[in-house]
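subagent[fold] <- orchestrator: predict structure for attached chain, return tokens only, no commentary.
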Amino acid sequence: MPLSAAERDLLITRAGGCCELCGATTELAAFAVAPRPGDTADESILACRACRDGLNGVAEPDHRWRCLTESAWSQVPAVQVVAWRTLEGLSSEDWARDLLEQLYLDEETMAWVHAKAEAEAGADEGSQHKDTFGAVLNAGDTVTLIKDLKVKGANFTAKRGTAVRNIALVPDNPEQIEGRVNDQRIVILTEFVKKSS
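subagent[fold] -> orchestrator:
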């Protein structure tokens, strides 16, 4: 979500009109610090195009991140979070590892550092298709129905114990799979199936 004009002015004033990571003064824009929405100056940093590209994974990590030896000491939590995460990504570099060992973040800021990874892990976890017992289902698996299911739009009931082979996962809905029963392709709720071993 873009910053309001007032919040953008606050961000520019806080940053002194410079990239808060490298100090550049051109091509500056707000960069939201995930997983927060970035609709306030406190949830964003002011960054130049090169730093934004690097943070978004568009540019290869390079010597440009040596600027973090200064900006990592910022008193602004959003800058601290970005610096810490970037340094963690550069942990194969001795200088980055040494700098990380010297830094200290308060508990709230450190929670923000880890919140992005936790949010991503939760999203991955939530998007998995699982059977009634929590076993992860994959495309091509065979499942067994654990109860009789009346199939809407067809004049039959899929009986408990029926094996459904070569299932397909319904994209964007981890609670549904597709499979063939009585030569008809049907959608089945994952809570009514058990993965066959």
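orchestrator: received. Logging for downstream: The two ends are 46 Å apart (CA to CA). Residues 107-126 form the longest helix (20 residues).
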